Amino acid sequence: MYKSLKELQIHCLNCTKCELCKTRKNVVLGVGNEESQIMFVGEGPGEKEDLTGEPFVGRAGKLLDKMLEYVDLSREKNIYIANIVKCRPPKNRDPFDTEQEACIDWLRNQILLIRPRLVVCLGRVAARRIIKNDFKITKEHGILYKKGNIFFMATFHPSALLRSPQNKPAAFEDFLKIKEKIENMTMNSKV
User: Which of 16, 84, 150, 167 counts the most CB atoms within 10 A of its CB?
Assistant: First the structure.
């Protein structure tokens, strides 16, 4: 176990556990409030993320920021955002199982260090890796699951919403559920 995200990042920057290290420009560890109770997890960085070293900065990131703002969340203020894999898969393809397996300990350590109370999986790939391997995003999005002391939920990936805008209303409903869960967590911590 690492003592801090800074220490984790130093080790992660030198990672060569899978082939993705050969084509990356930057390792994309995560961004946001390191003491947040809410963590969002996507599948992996895209081209813009690989260039900047920060998750969700392209068109999908702008949509995610709008959705977060809708429920009074932001990466600057009260959430942390990471991905399953920390290096960009070529042509933004889904990360292979072997790549996810090589990278998953980085995410596990991020979760241990941040200690979120709610983890929101962005998309099918993250949900299958984190919640359960047969997760169906169109049927199970917005449902809360609990493992240990952490709640988990999945919603549509912002890039999928850009391709299929008809799913935006359902995603916004998921974000309202996230807001409700946060309010309940806040109320229970004050009691």
Answer: 84
Instruction: Please say whether the beta carbons of 68 and 31 come within 8 A.
Output: no
φ, ψ for residue 34, nearest 5 deg: -75, -5
Cα separation, 78 vs 189, whole angstroms:
16
Whether 102 is covered by a domain: the verdict is: yes
- Cβ atoms of 131 and 121 closer than 8 Å: yes
The CATH number that applies at residue 48 is: 3.40.470.10
| Number of domains within the chain | 1
Q: Is residue 191 part of a domain?
A: no
Residue 31 Rama label (left phi>0; alpha psi -120 to 50; beta): beta
40 Cα distance to chain centroid = 3
Residue whose structure tokens are 């920021």: 65
CA gyration radius for the chain? 16
139 CB neighbour count, 10 Å cutoff: 8
Measured between alpha carbons, how far is 150 from 103 in angstroms, rounded to an integer?
A: 21
| 109-163 pLDDT per residue, tens | 999 999 999 999 999 999 999 999 999 999 999 999 999 999 999 999 999 999 9
pLDDT at 174 over 70: yes
Q: How many residues does the chain have?
A: 191
Boundaries of domain holding 37: 5-186
How many Cβ atoms from other residues are within 10 Å of residue 29's Cβ? 20
